[in-house]
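Consider the following assembly input.
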Amino acid sequence: AQSVTQLDSHVSVSEGTPVLLRCNYSSSYSPSLFWYVQHPNKGLQLLLKYTSAATLVKGINGFEAEFKKSETSFHLTKPSAHMSDAAEYFCVVSGVSGGSYIPTFGRGTSLIVHP
Amino acid sequence: DAGVIQSPRHEVTEMGQEVTLRCKPISGHDYLFWYRQTMMRGLELLIYFNNNVPIDDSGMPEDRFSAKMPNASFSTLKIQPSEPRDSAVYFCASSSRGGTEAFFGQGTRLTVV
C-alpha cells in the first residue's frame, strides 16, 4: 500500500519570500515521486519528478524538491515566490501496488501569494 | 503529440440522464487513468487500464459508473443514471509505463442539475 500526506492544506507567503510545501509518503517499494501544479480551472502540470536518480530534483519555474528516504519526505521549495505561483500543488507517489504502478495523490496544498 | 485530449470540456445534464466522457491518451502510452476531483474528496482514482485492460476499478463509486477502453487510443467513462452528487471535474491521464509521470488532460467539468 502507498499513501501521501501533504502536511498543510494552505500556505500563505509574501511575494519574494521562500516557499516550502511539505509532503510525506509511505510506500512498500522504492517509489517514484512527483509534484504537480494546478492553476484555477486548469489541468495538472508536472513540476518535477524523482525516479531514483539524484535526490535533489530541479523542476520548472525555479521549484526544486529533495527526496529524503530516512524521513520519507519530498518537500517542495522555491527561493522566491512570484504572484504567478499561486495555485494548488499536489504531491504524488507512484509505487507498485498489486503488480502495477498507480499514482496516488495527496490532498493538495493551496499556495497563496500576497503582494 | 497533442497531449491527452478529453471531451467535452464542460457538460451540464439533468439528473437521471446518461453522461459519457471521452479520452484520447497520448500515442504509445499503455497506462490510462480516470480521476475525479471534488472539493470534499480531492483527486480520487476511479479506474485504470494497462494495455486496454481494466486493472483496478475499486475506486468506481457505484454501479452507475462504468469505463471502457476499446482500443489503445480511446476510453470512455459513463455514468447512468447521473445524480447531482456526481458533479465534479473528471480527469483522464496516461503514462508510458509504470513509475513514470502521468500526463493529464484538461478535464471535463460535469454539472448534474
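The longest strand of chain B covers residues 42-50. Ask yourself how this observation constrains the way the partners meet.
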